[in-house]
Amino acid sequence: MARLQEREHGEGSAGVHPSRRSPIDLVHLCRQTAGNTALESEVLGLLVIQIERVRPVIETACESERKRLAHALKGASRNLGAFCLADAAEHLEQAPADQAAMAALLEELENTGRFAREMTAG
């Protein structure tokens, strides 16, 4: 079961899929958008908006709100290929009071947001 999840979510597969080393797996994103670069830019822009909205509120949110925000972020991130962000969101969803999980999510929000902004700026 763990190996199936690794293949589905990209964990442990950076050697097989080098694009998964970046904050967003661009090969996955391309597949999800059928190679439509305008659509890629649009969904990356939406991800940036979601990150910018979540970032300032998730730290001070109550546990149930953290779980809700993390769940929504997890789904959006997996769909776009932001697997590290999705995994960090999933960990916080499972343990909303865990400060290490919060710190990891904040770091991934920063990394993924920066990467997505760079991708849409050009």
UniProtKB/TrEMBL annotation:
- SUPFAM superfamilies, per the entry: Histidine-containing phosphotransfer domain, HPT domain (SSF47226)
Q: Which GO terms describe its biological process?
A: phosphorelay signal transduction system
**Keyword hit for rRNA-binding:** no
Query: Pfam families under this entry?
Result: Hpt
Cite a single GO MF annotation. Answer: protein kinase activity
Q: Which residue ranges does the record assign to the HPt domain?
A: 66-111
Q: Where is the stretch described as Disordered? A: 1-20
Does the entry feature the keyword Cell membrane, yes or no?
no
Q: Which UniProt keywords apply?
A: Two-component regulatory system
From start to end residue, where is composition biased (Basic and acidic residues)? 1-11
Task: State what protein this is by name.
Answer: HPt domain-containing protein
* The species this protein was found in: Jiella endophytica
